[in-house]
Design goal:
Layout: E1 17-30, E2 33-40, E3 43-49, H1 54-62, E4 68-77, E5 92-103, H2 120-125, H3 127-130, H4 134-156, E6 160-161, E7 179-181, E8 189-191, H5 197-205, E9 210-218, E10 230-239, H6 243-262, E11 271-273, H7 274-281, E12 294-296, H8 307-313, E13 318-325, H9 328-331, H10 334-345, E14 353-357, E15 367-368, H11 377-387, E16 394-401, H12 402-419, E17 429-433, E18 438-440, E19 446-448, H13 460-465, E20 474-479, E21 482-489, H14 494-503, H15 508-523, E22 529-535, H16 536-544, H17 574-579, H18 585-591
Parallel strand pairs: 3-5, 6-9, 11-17
Antiparallel strand pairs: 1-2, 1-4, 2-3, 4-5, 7-8, 9-10, 10-22, 12-13, 13-16, 14-15, 14-16, 17-20, 18-19, 20-21, 21-22
The protein binds aspartic acid.
Aspartic acid binds near residues 195, 488 and 532.
Length: about 600
């Protein structure tokens, strides 16, 4: 139906007769001459109809926004005064010869170029219209280019693309499962995969050696801003490679993608241990573009007559730390400091103490703060020295459990970086390594920090003796404070796998019931193996500079995990429920 894409026409096409198909982006009537901006997935071109083409001029007069047209015309140069340097096709226009209206359109619920004026709910309800917008077209095209480049890289490296099932059993990745009732197995449920973790490990047992998949994963979590209940992973697994080789292959992939698609050289990724990341940045995904750091001052506070500080300072699970904002005295207002106090509250901090260093040489009167009176002169001196604080600096403090201080000051650090625009570079990748195997829950039980299939760096005996001290062979790739991907060398030994399950409180019977197939597979010659998974959506979000993960997914869910366009999740009719032997309690109550 067409000879060219609208957005592809350039000066080189001048004189050609073209047939175009697309949507009316805008129609303007300029005293007898009608201008139609015709849009397709490549862009927009201006088409001009004058009354000479009488019959078609009449048609052109009838068209409205979002009508679908096929038109024939001749490409010609725009007059110098009307060249539009902001348009890719701005040097040319098409002189319209014929026009056929292929379909009419009702007035859309929002103008595509005024989408910001409507709520996101409206955009999502009419997603097919929202996706016509240039930005969304660009994002999804970029995403397609990216996945093609990923496939090419992995294919070149000998990886095989193998699909794994969607209807499966739960894999513990730490979130709630989406369940699907089975009609043929009464009272039983499939779980949608939180990741293909176990299947990819089994593929290694089968000898495929290098696997990848661009895989949908499902996690029923309460959604935070950058999460989706179904999301896409670039899932990778390899055999007979250690962490160094796996990190090198995947770092090479990400570096190559940035080079190829964005002409950005990320350089070699530095490495940092989990412990160092938590100490210096209060986060296991530090944003290294921001030069601020957490400084430990626990040892300075054990003796002070100020419970807020001395309490955590004397508690083995406590932490007291500070962040210095150089020159912060002038940069931050009282109101901003109050807002930061509220902000750290989100992370459980009960307050946000601060000191304004007005004169670093006058420890008696040069420090301005509600808390300074509680601190003896020598402690004030020690704080300033440790933080290398100078006149004009502002110091924030956190004192609470290790977790609360790290999380709240870690988040404050990022917020200050953003608010004060402290970024020192555009991109800051790194690997975080040497994670602990387990973390302790409030009730004293243990959870795997990554997942229970991650290999520890020690023997099963050492692990059982001191689980909280054990490190794992896991690694996370972080970019600009976002976790791009994570993985590990896996346990390939049945005994070790059982030891980990035991520490996690999964007893023999449950091990058999849930993971019997894995434990069996480990008996039949499982090779040493390991892998990693990247979050594709987040990668696209970062690379396109999008604000939200929803802007790089064609049909995303809302914050409440619903699709407002299809109205999913929806109700099902009673026959379907009967087939599944499901009776809704809700219904019973309503009836009863
Ligand atoms: N399955 C892990 C995840 O989804 C990634 C991995 O260990 O390969 O986070």
């Amino acid at each position: 139906m067409r000879s060219d894409y609208c957005g592809a026409l350039r000066s080189a096409d001048i004189g050609r007769e073209v047939t175009l198909c697309g949507w009316v982006d805008r129609r303007r009537d300029h005293g007898g001459v009608i201008f139609i901006d015709l849009r397709d997935r490549d862009g927009i071109v201006q088409v001009v109809f004058d009354p000479d083409a009488a019959e078609h001029f009449e048609q052109a007069d009838r068209v409205r926004g979002e009508y679908v047209l096929q038109l024939k015309g001749r490409v010609r140069a725009r007059s110098e005064a009307t060249v539009n340097p902001n348009m890719a096709t701005g040097e040319v226009e098409v002189y319209g010869i014929e026009l056929e209206i292929l379909n009419i359109a009702e007035t859309p619920p929002f103008q595509l170029d005024e989408h910001t004026a409507v709520g996101e709910d409206v955009r999502l309800k009419y997603r097919y219209l929202d996706l016509r917008r240039n930005e969304m077209q660009r994002n999804l095209r970029f995403r397609s280019k990216l996945t093609t480049a990923i496939r090419n890289y992995l294919d070149d490296m000998g990886f095989l693309d193998i699909e794994t099932p969607i209807l499966t059993r739960a894999t513990p990745e730490g979130a709630r499962d989406y369940l699907v009732p089975s009609r043929t197995h009464d009272g039983k449920f499939f779980a949608l995969p939180q990741s293909p973790q176990l299947f990819k490990q089994l593929l290694m047992v089968s000898g495929f050696d290098r696997y990848y998949q661009i895989a949908k994963c499902f996690r029923d979590e309460d959604l935070r801003a950058d999460r989706q209940p179904e999301f896409t992973q670039i899932d990778i697994e390899t055999s007979f490679l250690g962490e160094e080789e796996i990190m090198s292959i995947t770092e090479g992939m990400v570096r190559g993608l940035f080079q190829q698609l964005m002409d950005v050289d990320l350089g070699e990724f530095p490495r940092m241990s989990y412990e160092e990341a938590m100490l210096r940045y209060g986060s296991d995904k530090p944003d290294l573009r921001i030069p601020l750091e957490l400084v430990e001052i626990k040892d300075l506070m054990t003796e002070v007559d100020f419970k807020v500080f001395s309490g955590p300072a004397n508690d083995p699970k406590g932490r007291v730390a500070a962040i210095k904002v150089a020159g912060g005295n002038d940069k931050l207002t009282r109101k901003q400091i109050d807002d930061y106090t509220k902000f750290v509250g989100i992370y459980g901090a009960k307050g946000l103490a601060y000191i304004k260093v007005n004169d670093s040489t006058d420890l008696e009167n040069g420090l301005q703060s509600p808390i300074v009176k509680f601190l003896p002169i020598e402690v004030r001196a020690a704080i300033l020295e440790r933080l290398q604080a100078q006149s004009g600096d502002l110091i924030f403090f956190g004192a609470d459990s290790y977790k609360v201080v790290s999380e709240s000051l870690g988040a404050l650090r990022c917020k200050l970086g953003e608010d004060l625009n402290l970024y020192t570079s555009e991109w800051a990748p790194l690997w975080v390594v040497a994670f602990p195997m387990f973390e302790e829950n409030d009730d004293g039980s243990l959870t795997a920090l990554h997942h229970p299939f991650t290999a520890p760096s020690c023997s099963p005996e050492e692990l059982a003796q001191n689980p909280l001290g054990a490190l794992s062979r896991a690694y996370d790739m972080v970019l600009n404070g976002t976790e791009l991907g994570g993985g590990s060398v896996r346990i390939h030994d049945q005994e070790m796998q059982q030891a980990v399950f035991r520490i996690l409180g999964i007893e023999a019977e449950e091990q058999r019931e849930k993971f019997g197939f894995l434990l069996d597979a480990l008996k039949y010659g499982a090779p040493p193996h390991g892998g990693l998974a990247f979050g594709l959506d987040r990668l696209v979000m970062l690379m396109t500079g999008s604000d939200s993960i929803r802007d790089v997914i064609a049909f995303p869910k809302t914050q409440s995990a619903a699709c407002v366009m299809t109205d999913a999740p929806g109700t099902v009719d009673s026959r379907q429920l009967r087939e599944l032997n499901i009776r809704l309690r809700l219904k019973e109550e309503q009836v009863g």
